[in-house]
Amino acid sequence: MAPADMLRTLREGALHISKRLVLSYVIDWILIIATAAVGYAFGTIEPNHNPFSLTDLSISFPYAVHETVSGAVLVLAGLVAPAAVILIVTLLFIPGRTVDKNTPLSLIWKRKLWEWNAGWMGLGVALAGVYMATQGLKNLYGKPRPDMLDRCKPDLSNIAAYAVSGLGGSLEGAPTVVTWGICQDKSDKLRMDGFVSFPSGHSSFSWAGLTYLTLWLCAKFTIAFPYLSYRPLNHDLLPAPTTSSRYSSSNGKDTSSSSRISIRDQGAAPPVYLLLIAIIPLGTAAFISASRWFDHRHHGFDIFFGSAMGVVFAWIGFRLYQLPVRRGAGWSWRSRSRNHAFFRAIEFPDYDYDYDSVEQGWAASRSSAQGKKLGTADTSGHRNKQNSSDVERGGSTDQDLHLFVSSPSDGAAEQPKGSPPREEV
């Protein structure tokens, strides 16, 4: 498609998008960016400096001048790469080959844009949230890094002046706990970065972005374990019509419509190359977090806790915007209803529930009941009934603004032949 045609298509589709709804998602993006900005602000604040012992082996490792994974590489691996993959997959594979060839291009591009937005919003929530939480915890705990003493260059000639605890002054061999004032090198390398070991920022950020990418890819390409319910209603399933001889009885008659197949045929493992695609992001996150150990930047528990934080925030971001991996068929959740773009009242089940649809549905029901009392024919009830399922799913288009709900007193009313059964409340 030419760029000019694409822009015209997007412009035509944008005419049918609620400005109120768009504004609500613009505010969502502003808040996500603001959350990341708060995390950055936390990183500029001088952290707490916990007292330490000069004989503590866990903080006596050498300082590595060059990190295996720098901050720039971390951003590329945890943010830029997942965002680029989501964009490319969305443009190339969504909405898929099941779309009718006569579907308007404006509708296709609206779906692409929404899936793109949902994919990036989940990633943004995961990364911004874990970044702010990690930076805040670093400042609060003020835990010395494993290479802190090498950064510190302590003044060993004046230990007693900085001692705050320990029995080193009265008991031979006992440790003495001192403040960071004993350090001769008080540059930002120590003051700002020497006491931020817990939790590991590289671990939390990489696991948040790359775990989210793995979950997103698994959802889009249905990369999951074959599933079988623990308590299936039937231990066997009806097979599809077939002419295979194994479904024929001994008298030569085809019994495919009534024969059954084993429950083992209810699922199958995905191709191995898809498994590799899903594992690569996780392997990358594992390497990044492991590098913090052999670079002597973090203790083991710092790395483990940071990784766990990243996984949790990735799951939160994924579940907010994407359907479950196994049952979602690769789709994200739909957008909020324009009526609930900013707020959902307590009587509505979800943010995609259309208030106008329900109100007009009740109005149509009342009009129908009054018409029957006056002996008039109800000619709109059946059309409303056909649209009720769409409205219950939160449809917000103009043709979905009716919900037929019959009164219990109307249950015995005569219905035209072929009309669907009416719902009662």
Mean pLDDT: 78
Low-confidence stretches: 245-249, 254-259, 376-425
What order do the helices and strands follow?
HHEHHHEEHHEEHHHH
Helical stretch count? Answer: 11
Strand residues, percent: under 5%
Helix content: 40-55%
Largest sheet report? 3 strands, antiparallel
Shape: elongated
Alpha carbon gap, first and last residue? 50 Å
Number of strands: 5
* Secondary structural class: mainly alpha
Strands side by side in the biggest sheet: 1-3-2
Please state the CA-atom Rg, rounded to the nearest Å: 31 Å
Quaternary structure annotation? single chain
Compose a concise summary of this entry.
With 425 residues, this protein is mostly helical. The chain has 11 helices and 5 strands, in the order ααβαααββααββαααα. The strands form 2 sheets. It has a 3-stranded antiparallel sheet with strand order 1-3-2, with no helix packed on it. Strands 4-5 form a two-stranded antiparallel sheet.
Give a description of the structure.
By secondary structure, this protein is mainly alpha-helical. Among the domains are: 3-144 and 196-226 and 269-321, no CATH class; 347-410. Helices cover 48% and strands 3% of the residues. It contains eleven helices and five strands; from the N terminus they run H-H-E-H-H-H-E-E-H-H-E-E-H-H-H-H. The chain has helices spanning 3-14, 19-43, 71-93, 105-141, 148-152, 188-191, 201-221, 272-294, 300-321, 355-373, 381-392, and strands at residues 52-53, 163-166, 176-178, 236-237, 261-262. The strands form two sheets. The chain has a three-stranded antiparallel sheet, with no helix packed on it. A two-stranded antiparallel ribbon has the order 4-5. Helix 7 runs antiparallel to helix 8. Residues 245-249, 254-259 and 376-425 have low confidence and may be disordered.
